[in-house]
Amino acid sequence: MTLLRCRALMRVRKVFDDDVNAFMVATGIPNDGTIYFSATAQEITGSELWDAIEELVLSLKSSSIWGKCIAIYPLIGGTAFTHKWNLKDPRDIDAAFRLIFTGAITHSGTGMLGTPGAADTRVSPYNDLSFTENHLSAYIRTEGTLGYDMGASDNAALTLNEFALLARNAGNAYYSADGGYNCLLANASSKGYFVGTGTTPQKLWKHNLLLKSINSGGGQLAGSGNSATVGILSIIRETGVGVVNSDKETCFNSVGDTLSDADVGNLHTAVQALQVTLNREV
Question: What's the CA dihedral at 89, 87, 125, 62 to 10 degrees?
């Protein structure tokens, strides 16, 4: 038997993590030599995409971050269909937090860009998170100056009551975990992996560098009638409408519980490795 044949059999016999298998089957990306994004810097085969997600999942599980996320969006495959799935629960229902797209969104091998448009995670800060202990993360690939990269607001006027992450808006980066305008600071470049986490204190990170840490102060998303859900590429109000859309491209997002400083470092390592494999890192 030739060495090439042996390698082919080894690939066929590879057993993937159950969560990887469920997610990749949902995307419809085959575990074979099918080529995606031909003749671009992101050219890759289906089997290589399977391997990339396997590496991501195993890394998140080994560092105990997997269980702290309720939604993870790797945004692979380059289409609305492949981008919509939640890696943690790839079922096509609201309760599984798969994305619902509105408006104009450009989907590609480098992620998704609102032009303008929004993706509703269906994650309710009030119902699905411990609102005082949580995180948002967004890997931003392009320069931009406007809009929310992730967020929810239970106030129609967007006055204070926000759970939000911005890479750059009017010259500032910003994270709010409890509704107040906290963790706000000047930021000259929107490119990077941004993680906002915690409430006491709230911390905003960029590429594993701490930008700001501040104790919380302000309101919060609360009330039994609250229907606000977390948007990507916009902030979604209690009315269900995404507004103040981002002008930046995102290629990875997550929502979940608070992350420790060590968790943020491990998450950055895992996510950056994925982006390097897909040749879309910044």
Answer: 110
